Amino acid sequence: MIVVSDTIMDTIASSADLAALPTPYYAYDLDVAEQRVSELFDVFPSNSELFFSFKANPLPGLASAIGAAGARADLTSPGEIDAAVAAGFDLGLALYGGPGKNRDEFVHALSMGIRSFSIESFHDLGALNAAVANVDGDVQVLLRVNPMEPPRAKLVMSGVASQFGFEEEDLLAHGPLERSPGVNIVGFHIYWGTQVGGPDELAACFSNAVTTAEALATSLDIPLDILNLGGGFPWPYAVDGSGPDLSPLREPLAALRSGDGAASSATWWFESGRHCTASCGHLVTQVMDRKVSKDKEFVILDSGINHLGGMTGLGRIPRFAIRMIPPNNRSADTLVADVVGQLCTPLDLVGRKVEIPTDLAIGDVVAIPNVGAYGASGSLTNFLSRPAVLEACHRSGKITSIEQLATGHRTVDHLTQ
Ligand SMILES: Cc1ncc(COP(=O)(O)O)c(C=O)c1O
Q1: Residue closest by Cα to atom 2 of ligand 1
Q2: Atom 14, ligand 1: which residue's CA is nearest?
Q3: Does domain 30-278 have CATH number 3.30.70.1170?
Q4: Which of 40, 316, 358, 373 is the most buried if burial means most Cβ atoms within 10 Å?
């Protein structure tokens, strides 16, 4: 295992490339991302595929390393399609999903070469049926199901009331599903949630998904060629530490694989965004000011919720608990401060009661670890119109690409768009 640690400060100090970058920037270590991808492949049973969830981090420079390590693309928007193209993914092997899709979205995805879709409702299926006219080749459909039984997950998206997927009971009550010529229903997609837990919890979720999918395939007379088991492989966010060792998952997955139901001959798909990218990313930012207000210490950074943690409200990222790695030469004596950004709102809170060296100085470069997933991509980029953060990929400090999300408004002529 690669241990996430303060070595980021050594990496920056010894890297002319990184040291020369203006803050704030994300530094993504491609070697670390590749290591995480290979950990996942190590536990998957035979005949399995990994889909990289672009929602965690659509940065083309990073995604292309993950694609080269063997992952396919899990996409949910036209922007993610563009990112996957830029990263060199084969869209013919990609999966396109997400709730609330309409015909135009399907037409666009199909025109880009996508042929596999996760379908979440009867309306969704109707929109795909309407979109497939004149499309070359067959289209694969996985029915995303919200099973009747809830799993153990922190951010539960299935097994409880949710906007995601068909209700299992609705599918069972419905007659045969209408489909246009060339649209083939080839299996099921069950995504229990993000940050599911350790190997035991993950194994329980996958086992439940296999049972659900096999029962549905029989009841609905649908082939089980592909079973998308989702993922939910956890990793800490913005604090030190590592995710659980996943190797104990290998055996239960292999045992499930060799079961005697229809799932044993299906291709298994897994999805992961967080595990692939969380640990490879640090947000490197600078102390712009320090102040004391009514006995409370504040550190003001050149990075805030416009670059990190804007999705705190979703509970999938920290509720203001962060680790801020100081420069190596700062004092061991610490005090507690609220760490904020430059936006003109008290909501721009990056970390609450964060331990900082007493001598942390204006101009110091600091780093926040484990933010390669849902860091830049989970932030309020447009809020207060500051520039998007720089995002640099590197190997041992040698930068391989630097990218920046384009922000700003363009005029749209609605008559011609
Ligand atoms: C359907 C689906 N697949 C995959 C993911 C990626 O999850 P994670 O980044 O936790 O691996 C998500 C996250 O919300 C999701 O909703």
Answers
A1: 191
A2: 194
A3: no
A4: 373
User: Measured from the CB, is residue 271 less than 6 Å from ligand 1?
Assistant: yes
Q: Which residue has the tokens 């997950």?
A: 153
Mean pLDDT of 209-228: 96
Question: E-strand spans in 213-308?
Answer: 226-228, 267-272, 281-293, 296-301
Instruction: Give the pLDDT confidence score for residue 3 in this predicted structure.
Output: 40
Q: What is the pLDDT of residues 9-30, one digit of tens each?
A: 999 999 999 999 999 999 999 9
Segment 79-127, tens digit of pLDDT: 999 999 999 999 999 999 999 999 999 999 999 999 999 999 999 999 9
Residue 303's contacts (CB-CB under 8 Å, 6 or more residues apart) are 23, 24, 283, 285, 341, 342, 350, 389
Mean pLDDT taken over the chain? 93
Q: Which atom of ligand 1 is nearest to the CA of 230?
A: 3
Tens of pLDDT, residues 240-258: 999 999 999 999 999 999 9
Separation CA 120–CA 99 (nearest Å): 6
Q: Is the pTM of this model over 0.90?
A: yes
**Any atom of ligand 1 within 6 Å of the Cβ of 57:** no
What pLDDT, on the 0 to 100 scale, is given for residue 157? 62
* Mutation to probe ligand 1, out of 49, 52, 54, 55 (largest number of atoms < 8 A from CB): 55
Ligand 1 centroid to 94 CA: how many Å?
15
For the chain, which residues make up each domain, given as ranges? 30-278, 279-404
* CB distance 316 to 54 below 8 Å: no
293: β partners: 296
CATH fold match for the domains 30-278 and 279-404: no
Shortest-distance atom of ligand 1 to CA 155: 14
Yes or no: domain 279-404 corresponds to CATH 2.40.37.10: yes
Please work out whether the CB of residue 76 comes within 6 Å of at least one atom of ligand 1: no
pLDDT at residue 407 in the model: 83
Q: How far is the CA of 71 from the centre of ligand 1 (A)?
A: 15
